[in-house]
């Protein structure tokens, strides 16, 4: 399995973008090694310090008991107050006159066995004043350190005290009987939660004080969906991110096929803060895999009570704010921008047609006319991607791709609005997963999901328990199917039985003594907040007053398989599998225990089972939070090293934290140039919750990557390959765009835009290292310059060209200049300078003065320079290329190569015209390409001015001007003769025909020779190319027959003309082959490949004697 690593200087480059940073090549397979005697070398894989399954102490629950008359004026006291006997409770007077009225308290810890199940994860207390005493205020401090790990999901960080009237046990929905969260000071370091509470006389009805977890805390927020801000701000320039990608090999089939890979990004871990949902993905911390989704965000109703809202009391429900969306598809992600009259467009415009449609029956009840919302995205090749379609053509099963949650339309004009707030909600989608793909030929792919549901107490009413979808996991992908109609495709046929599948198995996020999902042993589900569950069978959800989003699943195995018609009867054949091993590793400060991907075990399953050596991962613990207000550093794990199947190692070194408490006290967010970013959160010491404090969180960069071959025994060890990164200058932080969803007072400069310049050195010997210096755009022009407003003016100069280039927001991540040196920065060898371009806005929106626009981005001019003489002693040869780009479609209209800018007469122009089918969004289909030896805009005067001219016919069209139907070139002509004013003469160069699936059927060359390809079986779903027969009608005639194994669609036997043959045998992931020529004297050759961790990968070739 090939893996690729990349230290991301530009984490993602959109379509039509300027050139990305040079891709770091994957670790090269080492050559076969020999020992000093010429024999094969054995070796061993690099060892890793892999800490597994962080143990947690068994919970020590305090005994039930009561202490009478705890004197508040007692002299034996601590900073927390007076301890209530041997109970884990301290009491003290509250602030103000109400606190001074108290002289003593009775304290009781209630027996857990007598409590409702929902209250047993914490502690229930009762505090009362003596008989006849007036109501007063007391401060209670509860020590939970003995049972802080009794529940998962960072329970301790979310712990708080609640005041629960006694009547809540019997009549929780009566006014005055609801649980009320208290403003809690949670000392995580000591494991003590403190709050002030009203205390009445023992003769009154009394109330309980409950220590329980809420949805959020200083270590994260389960009320937030998994769309963390890092998905946008980590994609900056010169980011220093470490990325690693593990692609999974997928059997091919006609039409759309999945691309599955496990992708890691250290930047995703850097983005974890107090305001994000910090449960690691189903793959593990820093990793993820998702085929695509569109997500909409809502706002807490408690933050949406102005401007005529019909809600007058705080509640934990979700409320409508705006019709917003964020999309992830085909490795790209970003905001979708809507403008009336222009529709939906991706902020990183790529020409896709984006539509929000209705009527899917997917559980989205919406408002009037909006029921069953789903999305269709049509890319520029005509392929349609559906999100949340739910019911697919020809299928009776449902994809379960749409996740919904109750949403209140609390303002007039919003979906589901009614006069009363309690009647203003309906189920609205918060995520639409990709579930159906159809290409322009009618080939299809479908994706199937499993939902995870939960309930919560709507409108803060315990008995108003309402269901919602808290998560969803991908179960399988079916492909090799089709759905064609006579009107669109020329034939009516449908297949819903897949040729191939990718199956995703899930397991518990727990490994030992887990219990069941209906009765979990919560202490062993270390990153799962079971305390936030309200069971489907429950009739009320006390203390569950807001929806939370989390999963109990982890990805445990991925299996590819095909429908094998060579079996009798036909049956599924597993092809390959990847088993994921997970652990819960300890962090340096023990604050976070999240799912960690420990290993990947790959196996081939055809012709027997072959288990390859595992890929394993070592972690390093890094503090995310600058140690300030809360007393914790919030450590998370990052990849420190990877050992591959071959035993080679990739080792990563990160920077040390730059910010300290003393440093951040001097920082202003708008002028911050340190590697830490601010997050504004409510001050835990302010009982009103209105005061905000700024917490600071670290950003890490990769300093060095080493690649080591397998450790050899008795041979010559290969040198390590070292790559060093030097970041020049200071980093930039961008102000958060106003999306109308975040509170204005929470917005700050927290979008990472990285460094303007990075020096990359590769090599072992400092004297012979290569050096490349790359200058980046960071998108800082127009950024807010101060809290009171204003904007920045930022340009990015370069050593070539006279253009003034502003650092526009859309250019973030583009390369402005790259200089390659001969080892040291005094010997430049070559340089490239790019001038970026952006189109007019294809859509835009403005909220609170912040404008966000969708635009195409490209490079309009490129300068290339080569040093002349030794170290450029004779100057530079500079060339220039310029493009004209269409504003509507983002396609190139013409490109001019000026050649050497110091000379004239060597210009060349290539112009393009297009034949588009806008109804199908086929917008990239080139009709004619003309190359002249003239500057662009100058008409040729003779045939000598024309270098080449070619034009394309599409889909069997009789005229070159006929719009394409499928976008397949059926005929290409080149210019044969031309004269100004007398017309043109064209010559056919090639012709082609295709079958209904879009597979090549015939190919005709310039001499009229025809090559015909037959597919057996003919069904497009059952075969892509194997087995097949190719026949040629030229002279001499020949025929080639290739017979393939269904699992991989690779040839097992090829017979050519005149009589040559080769065979290949597959066993697991191991390929063995033999070949022989047409003559009896040809030596048959046999090859066989092996891979182990004890020696380098080997391909062995054997030749036998010639046959007589």
Automatic annotation (TrEMBL):
Residues 1001-1015 have a biased composition (Polar residues). Residues 1021-1032, 1082-1094 have a biased composition (Basic residues). Residues 18-59, 343-373, 1000-1108 are annotated as: Disordered. Residues 1-17 form the signal peptide. Residues 346-356 have a biased composition (Basic and acidic residues). The keyword Hydrolase does not apply. Residues 1053-1065 have a biased composition (Low complexity). The keyword Electron transport does not apply. Keywords: Signal. Residues 360-370 have a biased composition (Gly residues). This is Uncharacterized protein.
């Amino acid at each position: 399995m090939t893996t690729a690593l990349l230290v991301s200087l530009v984490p993602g480059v959109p379509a039509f973008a300027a050139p990305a940073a040079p891709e770091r090549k994957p670790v090269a397979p080492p050559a076969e090694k020999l020992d000093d005697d010429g024999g094969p070398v054995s070796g061993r894989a690099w060892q890793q310090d892999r800490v597994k399954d962080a143990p947690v102490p068994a919970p020590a629950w305090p005994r039930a008991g009561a202490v009478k008359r705890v004197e508040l004026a007692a002299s034996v006291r601590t900073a927390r107050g007076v301890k209530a006997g041997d109970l884990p409770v301290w009491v003290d007077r509250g602030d103000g006159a109400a606190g001074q009225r108290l002289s003593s308290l009775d304290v009781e810890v209630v027996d857990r066995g007598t409590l409702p199940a929902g209250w047993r994860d914490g502690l229930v207390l009762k505090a009362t004043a003596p008989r006849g005493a007036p109501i007063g205020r007391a401060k209670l401090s509860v020590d939970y350190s003995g049972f802080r790990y009794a529940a998962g999901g960072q329970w301790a960080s979310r712990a708080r005290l609640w005041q629960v009237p006694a009547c809540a046990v019997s009549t929780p929905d009566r006014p005055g009987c609801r649980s009320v969260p208290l403003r809690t000071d949670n000392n995580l370091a000591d494991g003590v939660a403190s709050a002030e509470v009203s205390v009445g006389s023992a003769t009154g009805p009394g109330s309980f004080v409950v220590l329980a977890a809420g949805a959020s805390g200083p270590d994260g927020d389960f009320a937030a969906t998994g769309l963390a801000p890092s998905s946008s701000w980590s994609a900056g320039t010169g980011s220093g991110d470490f990325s690693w990608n593990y692609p999974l090999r997928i059997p091919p089939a006609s039409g759309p096929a999945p691309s599955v890979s496990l992708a890691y990004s250290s930047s995703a871990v850097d983005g974890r803060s107090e305001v994000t949902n910090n449960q690691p993905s189903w793959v593990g911390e820093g990793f993820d895999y998702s085929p695509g989704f569109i997500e909409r965000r809502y706002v807490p109703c408690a933050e949406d009570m102005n401007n005529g809202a019909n809600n007058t009391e705080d509640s934990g429900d979700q409320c409508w704010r705006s019709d917003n969306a964020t999309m992830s598809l085909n490795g790209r992600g970003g905001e979708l921008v809507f403008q009336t009259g222009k529709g939906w467009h991706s902020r990183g415009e790529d020409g896709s047609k984006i539509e929000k449609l209705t009527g899917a029956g997917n559980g989205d009840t919406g408002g009037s006319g909006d029921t069953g919302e789903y999305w269709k995205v049509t890319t520029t090749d005509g392929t349609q991607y559906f999100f949340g379609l739910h019911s697919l053509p020809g299928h009776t099963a449902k994809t379960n791709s749409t996740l919904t949650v109750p949403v209140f339309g609390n303002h007039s004009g919003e979906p589901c609005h009614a006069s009363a707030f309690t009647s203003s909600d309906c189920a609205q989608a918060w995520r639409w997963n990709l579930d159906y793909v159809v290409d322009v030929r009618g080939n299809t792919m479908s994706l199937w999901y499993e939902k995870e549901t939960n309930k919560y107490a709507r409108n803060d009413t315990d008995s108003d328990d309402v269901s919602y979808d808290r998560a969803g996991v991908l179960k399988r992908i079916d492909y090799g199917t089709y759905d064609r109609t006579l009107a669109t495709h020329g034939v009516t046929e449908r297949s819903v039985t897949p040729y191939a599948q990718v199956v995703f198995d899930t397991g518990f996020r727990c490994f030992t003594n887990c219990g069941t999902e209906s009765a979990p042993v919560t202490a062993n589900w270390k990153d799962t907040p079971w305390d936030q569950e309200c069971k489907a069978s429950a009739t009320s959800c006390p203390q569950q007053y807001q929806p939370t989003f989390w999963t109990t699943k982890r990805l445990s195995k991925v299996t590819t398989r095909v429908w094998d018609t060579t079996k009798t009867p036909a049956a599924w054949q597993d092809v390959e599998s990847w088993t994921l091993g997970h652990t819960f590793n300890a962090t340096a400060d023990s604050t976070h225990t999240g799912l960690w991907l420990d290993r990947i075990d790959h196996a081939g399953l055809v012709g027997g089972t072959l288990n390859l050596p595992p890929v394993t991962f070592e972690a390093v613990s890094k503090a995310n939070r600058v140690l300030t207000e809360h007393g914790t550093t919030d450590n998370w794990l990052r990849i420190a090293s990877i050992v591959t199947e071959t035993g080679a190692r990739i080792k990563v070194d990160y920077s040390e934290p730059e910010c300290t408490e003393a440093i951040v006290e001097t920082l202003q967010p708008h002028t911050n140039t340190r590697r830490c970013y601010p997050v504004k959160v409510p001050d835990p010491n302010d009982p009103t919750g209105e005061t905000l404090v700024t917490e600071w969180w670290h950003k890490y960069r990769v300093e060095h990557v080493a690649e080591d071959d397998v450790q050899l025994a008795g041979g010559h060890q290969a040198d390590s390959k070292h790559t060093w990164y030097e970041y020049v200058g200071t980093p930039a932080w961008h102000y958060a765009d106003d999306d109308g969803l975040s509170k204005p007072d929470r917005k700050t400069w927290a979008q990472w835009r990285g460094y303007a310049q990075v020096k990359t050195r590769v090599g072992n010997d400092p004297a012979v290292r290569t050096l490349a210096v790359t200058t980046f755009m960071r998108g800082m022009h127009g950024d807010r310059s101060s809290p009171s407003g204003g904007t920045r003016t930022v340009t990015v100069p370069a050593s070539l060209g006279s253009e003034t280039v502003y650092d526009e927001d859309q250019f973030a991540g583009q390369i402005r200049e790259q200089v390659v040196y001969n080892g040291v920065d005094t010997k430049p060898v070559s340089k490239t300078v790019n001038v970026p371009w952006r189109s007019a806005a294809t859509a835009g929106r403005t909220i609170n003065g912040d404008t966000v626009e969708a635009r195409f981005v490209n490079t309009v001019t490129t300068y290339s320079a080569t040093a002349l003489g030794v170290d450029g002693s004779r100057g530079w040869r500079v060339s220039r290329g310029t493009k004209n780009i269409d504003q509507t479609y983002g396609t190139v209209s013409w490109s001019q190569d000026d050649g050497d800018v110091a000379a004239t007469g060597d210009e060349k122009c290539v112009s393009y015209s297009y034949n588009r089918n806008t109804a199908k969004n086929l917008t990239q289909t080139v009709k004619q390409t003309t190359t002249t030896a003239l500057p662009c805009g100058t008409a040729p005067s003779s045939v000598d001015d024309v270098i080449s001219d070619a034009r394309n016919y599409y889909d069997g069209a009789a005229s070159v001007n006929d719009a394409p139907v499928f976008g397949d070139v059926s005929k290409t002509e080149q210019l044969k003769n031309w004269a100004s004013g007398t017309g043109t003469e064209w010559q056919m160069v090639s012709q082609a025909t295709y079958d209904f699936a879009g597979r090549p059927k015939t190919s005709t060359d310039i001499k009229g020779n025809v090559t015909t390809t037959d597919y057996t079986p003919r069904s497009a779903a059952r075969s892509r190319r194997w087995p097949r027969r190719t026949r040629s009608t030229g002279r001499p005639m020949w025929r080639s027959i290739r017979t393939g194994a269904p699992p991989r669609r690779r040839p097992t036997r090829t017979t050519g003309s005149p009589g040559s043959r080769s065979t290949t045998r597959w066993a697991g992931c191991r390929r063995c082959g033999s070949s022989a020529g047409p003559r009896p004297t040809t030596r048959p050759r046999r090859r066989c490949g092996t891979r182990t961790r004890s020696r380098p990968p080997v391909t062995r070739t054997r030749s036998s004697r010639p046959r007589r």
